[in-house]
Design a protein that fits this description.
binds pyridoxal-5'-phosphate; Aspartate Aminotransferase, domain 2; 3-stranded antiparallel sheet; alpha/beta; 11 helices
Length: about 350
């Protein structure tokens, strides 16, 4: 604390990202990055961008990228907003679309950045409990609200909500914005993107950090009615006109265009996830059904914090959350390559 701090800064409880260790050689299964590198076409696009034009500002509106994303989803450019990672997109969403009289709603177990944004922008929220199977129960969201947001699949549980349920929620909630954070949707879920044309209160947020292997490039986007996109653009242009640099725009276009590579890598991750789930089950873990590139699992007898520490001693890092108490027994394990998953399983076998 310092007298120089604003009251806002004094009150903040910042988000703590998963560790990015400096040690090489660690098996890094803690922040849901893709174990496979980005498409070679992305790397070529980045190389082509390294030149004289870097002295010029990038396109502030990222028009070519937005056109590419719109084409991918069968939408218009006016339906697409892009930002410096979906975290930045989400920040603008909280400030521009979720700050109203009524508290916003999100699950009690969910992406832990949401309450942080509420703190930053002074937004009241109310947590809606997941059911006993750690699932989102749409019926619980039928109450007055200033907006609704949750990830699908949810984080850190990996549980997927069927698209029909999301449509039911939209039908019951026409008067406030519903944000579906689809950071992990490409690992087995059905995107709500096609519903954007039908529901003007729906905003779908996606990222290139997970299924497109570009966490280091920082690109995320939102799909929604042009009125919602205009709100986000107004916030962006009051904050940073150039959130995506030339590399980010060029690399993201190439990533969205290379569908074959995307298809191959995501199928590999899905196959490894199914295999790892079975192997953990054989070691007496109970594993929640996952539609994501991670698994949320607890051991019958061993504590989550203890297992995390024991894995770390063996050079494997996974993510553990102390709160809420209901998830403290769980480990969140990112799906690595098959070789990394095998190292994890043999380390667990040793520990147990
Ligand atoms: C990873 C993640 C994000 C953020 O992704 P970036 O685009 O890298 O900022 C957003 N929401 C959820 C639920 C995530 O897991």
């Amino acid at each position: 604390m310092s007298k120089f701090w604003s009251d806002t800064v004094k009150r903040l409880t910042p988000y703590i990202p998963g560790e990015q260790p400096r040690l090489a050689n660690l098996v890094k299964l803690n922040t849901n990055e893709n174990p496979y590198g980005p498409s070679p076409k992305v790397l070529a696009a980045l190389q082509a961008e390294a030149g004289d034009t870097l002295r010029l500002y990038p396109d502030p509106d990222s028009v070519r990228l937005r056109e590419t994303i719109a084409g991918y989803f069968g939408l218009e450019t006016a339906n697409v907003f892009v930002g410096n990672g979906s975290d930045e997109v989400l920040a603008h969403v909280f400030q521009g679309l979720l700050k109203h009289e009524q508290p916003i709603l999100f699950p009690d177990i969910s992406y832990s950045f949401y309450p942080v944004y509420c703190g930053l922008y002074d937004i009241a929220f109310s947590n809606v409990p997941l059911n006993d199977s750690f699932e989102i129960d749409i019926a619980q969201y039928q109450q007055p609200n200033g907006g609704i947001i949750f990830p699908n699949p949810n984080a850190p549980t990996g549980c997927l909500l069927a698209l029909g349920e999301i449509e039911r929620l939209l039908q019951a909630n026409a008067d406030s914005v519903v944000v579906i954070d689809e950071a992990y949707i490409d690992f087995g879920g059905e995107s709500a993107a096609p519903l954007v044309k039908k529901y003007p209160q729906l905003l779908v947020v996606q990222t290139l950090s997970k299924a497109r292997s570009l966490a280091g490039l920082r690109v995320g986007y939102a799909l929604g009615h042009p009125d919602l996109i205009t709100a986000l653009t107004r916030v962006k242009d009051s904050f940073n006109s150039y959130p995506l640099d030339r590399f980010a725009q060029a690399g993201a276009i190439a990533a969205m265009e290379d569908r074959d590579y995307f298809e191959q890598t995501r199928q590999r991750v899905i196959a490894s996830r199914e295999k790892l789930g079975v192997e953990l089950g054989a070691l007496n873990f109970s594993v929640l059904p996952s539609g994501a590139n991670f698994i949320f699992a607890r051991h019958e007898h061993r504590d989550g914090a203890e297992l995390t520490a024991a894995l770390r001693e063996r050079g494997i890092i996974v993510r553990h959350f102390n709160t809420p108490a209901r998830i403290a027994p769980y480990l969140r394990i990112t799906i690595g390559t098959d070789a990394q998953c095998a190292l994890l399983v043999s380390a667990l076998r040793e520990i147990l």
